[in-house]
Amino acid sequence: MKVLDSIKYNEKGLVPVITQDFQSGKVLMQAYAKKEQLEKTLKTGLAHYYSRSRDKEWLKGETSGHYQKVVEMRVDCDMDCVLYIVNQVGAACHTGEFSCFYRKINKKGEIEDE
Questions:
Q1: What pLDDT digit, counting tens, does each position of 45-67 carry?
Q2: What is the span of the domain harbouring residue 34?
Q3: pLDDT score recorded for residue 69
Q4: Neighbours of 32 (CB within 10 A)
């Protein structure tokens, strides 16, 4: 049995995917994938996700050109979260920021841009 069959997908068949930059170690984004997208990621070497808002598969970079070339794919100890370690081409965030996690919450509970 392959590991993708053992992953704990939620009731909608989705598993959270954290994406990390290979070079910097920065966390780039969090999204979701179904087994089919994980299989395509393994097969193509490019990050595939499932868009919940559009209700369809999503190849990161297909419209922006900001592809994610997967160096490694990992699964956590509980088998309920996947990690893509990628070489990021361009920005990961739709806002144009390199990472979606560019806003910091300070000790006052306010948002600060990095």
A1: 999 999 999 999 999 999 999 99
A2: 3-104
A3: 98
A4: 19
Q: Residue 87 is inside which H or E element, if any?
A: strand 82-88
* CA-based nearest residue to 30, from 42, 20, 43: 20
Q: What is the token pair recorded at 21? A: 């930059």
Total domains present in the chain:
1
**Burial (CB count <10 Å: 0-12, 13-18, 19+), residue 29:** buried
pLDDT at 85 over 80: yes
Predicted confidence (pLDDT) at residue 1 exceeds the cutoff of 70: no
In a domain, 113, yes or no: no
Is 20 a domain residue?
Answer: yes
Residue 36: give its domain's CATH number: 3.10.20.810
- The per-residue pLDDT for 112 is 85
Retrieve residue 100's tokens: 């979606």
CA 29 – CA 76 distance, rounded (Å)? 16
